[in-house]
Amino acid sequence: MPVMLLWLGVWVSLGLLPGAASSSSSSSSSFSSSSSWEPLEPVSAEKSLAWGPGLEAELTLPARYFYLQAVSSDGRNCTRSPPGQFSVSIKPLSARESIQIHVPKLLDRNDGSFLMRYRLHTSVKEGLKVEILYGDAHVAQSPYILKGPIYHEYCDCPEKDAEVWKKSLSCPSEEAQITEDFAAFPSIDLQQMFKEVPPRFGQRMGAIVHYAILNNRIYRRTLGKYTDFKMFSDEMLLSLSRKVRLPDVEFYVNVADWPIEHRKANDTPGPVPILSWCGSVDSADIVLPTYDVTHSTLETLRGVTNDLLSVQGNTGPVWENKTEQGFFRGRDSREERLLLVKLSKENPELLDAGITGYFFFREKEKELGKVPLMGFFDFFKYKYQVSVDGTVAAYRFPYLLLGDSVVLKQSSPYYEYFYKELSPWSHYIPIKRNLEDLLEKIKWVKENDEVVRKIAKEGQMTARELLQPHRFYCYYFKVFQIKIPVMPHGPCSPVPSTIVADEEENMGFPPVQPESEPLHLEDVCPQEVSQTSLGQNSPPFSRKDNYNRDRGAREANRRSLRIAAKQLAD
Fold first, then answer.
1. Same domain flag for 286 and 314
2. Are 81 and 16 in contact, with CB atoms under 8 Å apart?
3. What is the CATH number of the domain that holds 336?
4. Predicted TM-score of the model (pTM)
5. Range of the domain at 461
6. Same domain, yes or no, for 443 and 479?
7. Taking CA 509 as the corner, what is the angle to CA 234 and CA 488, rounded to the nearest 5 degrees?
8. Which of 16, 158, 175, 493 gets the most CB atoms within 10 Å of its CB?
9. Do both 441 and 526 map to the same domain?
């Protein structure tokens, strides 16, 4: 998708093709639309709806976004893409102010609703004016005035009052998974944690990162050989600290795939708190959003193409036109995936499954064959998506839920942070771990199309709510704010015997994309805490002379390429 860097505002006028995946267009492109579905009455721009965090100035996200819902003149929500054009204009309030902004095509979600995304590359001092039109008429309360300052992702401008920040994001008051995870830790003994974790989990084969947050600055040291994926936890912590002032805390993150703390709450000694990207029924790890969805959220409209927003506008043909087969593509990272291919070869009319790369069971490639990589959005040409674990919970599952196919999910001991909000037969169709009922379930879904369609829709709508990018920030912050103890160190003291702030390996990353001309909004974003320059007043992690302004961007681009390649392989 080509990046559009537009100065002095941006105008996007987009026709929407119903029932088809979105494609890139320039800012001047315009397409007529047609549809076999016609509303009983024309769409009412005034009654149509616009909402979301991208219409709130105080809410800073890597990519801002908001939603549109087409409503007919008699007050009904449209359920297909209506004929006509929606257009969006984003301009600085002051004609004297120029902005850099990336505005891709409006995403048609194929259900009468649309998703608009944009990413600021510079902060805006005076504010923005967002105009939303249907034809020539303003939609809902358009124009929307977002009064400045409005910050871009890499402005170090944290909100000092956590309650104000949480309210601006509409963060939920409770997260069921956090409550359950910390039930095993009614109190946390920091000294015991420091004593146990390094020898138990931080040896040569370990993948542990010890973090400390002091005065909203991030410090870390690594424990073990396999800690390269610290780049994902680094970037999330730095991003969060630029948006809200974090409490002084100290914690361990496991950057490997598997959860690692297998002691039970009633064991002696008991479990120690370890933050991990995945949980399991036989572990006590505290679950965070996976590195995959975290990174794709941070790099939306920048370094990735498959993210939790873009998938919503690329869900393939409408339900009636999807191929009625079970579908799977992925690596050989679990033996049941090989069984899936065998079932496919024996029952091609029910199931299309293939392995795209062999690593764990290379001896099986000759027997089972290897299929070419396939673009993820093309998965949704199929009505029934089969989700089978990889090394742990399948990281593709949240993306599949956001499509408009139904997901047949393997029973699993592994789970991600949002699974507690889902129910089998309401949001997905369960299948046994050994897949013995898979073919039976595929036959059942083919015979019960309307019931299955409702399950697919319920799963999609729930995923749209749970997996909004701003909810990630709420979740991370709640873990640190409520349950992890405040460090006993003084506010300006180094962390004794734990983390050395200025060693090469222990430095946080500099901002990935500093501003070409540092922007200091001194009344809101004081210079002494700004990360937008590399001056004497910058945080400790940006003081190394060899960390020039471009290194972070180069490293981020290389990481994004590796991650994109892994996503295709998975």
1. no
2. yes
3. 3.40.50.2000
4. 0.81
5. 310-467
6. no
7. 60
8. 16
9. no
